[in-house]
Design a protein that fits this description.
The chain has 120 residues and is an alpha/beta fold. Helix content is 34%, strand content 29%. The chain has one domain: Rossmann fold (3-Layer(aba) Sandwich), CATH 3.40.50.2300. The chain contains five helices and seven strands, in the order βαβαβββαβαβα. The strands form two sheets. The chain has a five-stranded parallel β-sheet with strand order 2-1-3-6-7. This is Response regulatory domain-containing protein.
Amino acid sequence: MSNYKNVFVIDDDPTNNMICRKMIEKTNFGETVYTYTEANDAVQSWDDVQPEIIFLDINMPPSTGWDFLEQLAEKGVDAPKVYMLSAEVTVDDRKRAEQYKEVEGIIIKPLTPTKLSELK
């Protein structure tokens, strides 16, 4: 049985999206994985597919993962659990993550079965 029914992976790198999808499916962490290379696409599909957990890249030019969280707030959406993804994490990223109640943590890429097993 899957931990989560609907999982969003939002990352501007299609290769990272594929890796995340494979890890989530391989570990049976999520039943259905939706991947997006642009945060706006995820926001637009929100009403049709409401995820229970989101893996969100911090840096996705031209926007950021933080922009995505702000868009959800403006839409009046209570976001589910969010794990920020990044190749490197700065002190500023950690401080900013603390400002969002939905952000459970920051994961250094790549997502692995071990990292998934450690999530709440």
